[in-house]
Specification:
Keywords: Repeat. By secondary structure, the chain is mainly α. The chain has ten helices and two strands; from the N terminus they run αβαααααβαααα.
Length: 184
């Protein structure tokens, strides 16, 4: 499938691997794909993101992702569902961090999934890449571009899609932004 990726999409995948390496994560996640996308300039996805979010989008998105990592990757919807069952995720996070230090629930450090020196892709990241192919095919595009990766991230659910939606980046808004011609 990787041979069908444009240079821009390949750069996003490579950038996500670099994010995983820098943070010591055992696997490449959807979060890493999003952070790599946010680093891109002069691509279709970057243009769509610029049109949908203020120019200072990266710090706000990174902060929202870090907050979710502190909650062990639970989305706000997950935390609210647990709260409905009488489980206060915020209190649990506070107690764990009090005992073990800030970010103790963040996980993702080198461990069982990191043996060969190469990062594997999490189920979530694989799903995003597979969806990007399906989206490209549905749009009758010959190659998978970084815009397809962005569209796929908006549809996977969970923390990444929640953070994107909080910043006005939804499948519908990205599609509308992509329909505007981009000067390169």
């Amino acid at each position: 499938m990787f041979e069908r990726f444009t240079q821009d999409a390949r750069a996003v995948v490579k950038g996500s691997v670099e994010y995983a390496e820098r943070t010591g994560s055992a696997t490449v996640t959807g979060e890493h794909l999003l952070l790599a996308l946010l680093d891109r300039e002069d691509t279709r996805a970057a243009a769509a993101l610029r049109g949908l979010c203020p120019s200072d989008r990266r710090p706000a998105v990174a902060a929202a992702l870090a907050d979710a990592r502190r909650r062990a990757g639970l989305s706000r919807a997950d935390a609210e569902a647990l709260e409905g069952l009488g489980i206060d995720v915020g209190a649990i996070v506070a107690r764990v961090e009090e005992a073990h230090g800030r970010g103790a629930l963040a996980g993702g450090r080198r461990g069982a999934g990191w043996r060969s020196g190469r990062r594997s892709f999490s189920r979530e990241a694989k799903t995003v890449l597979e969806k990007s192919l399906r989206i490209a095919l549905a749009r009758k595009d010959r190659e998978i571009g970084d815009e397809h990766v962005l569209l796929a991230l908006t549809t996977t659910g969970g923390v990444v899609a929640e953070v994107l939606a909080d910043h006005g980046v939804t499948y519908t808004s990205v599609e509308a932004a992509l329909s505007v011609p981009v000067a390169r």
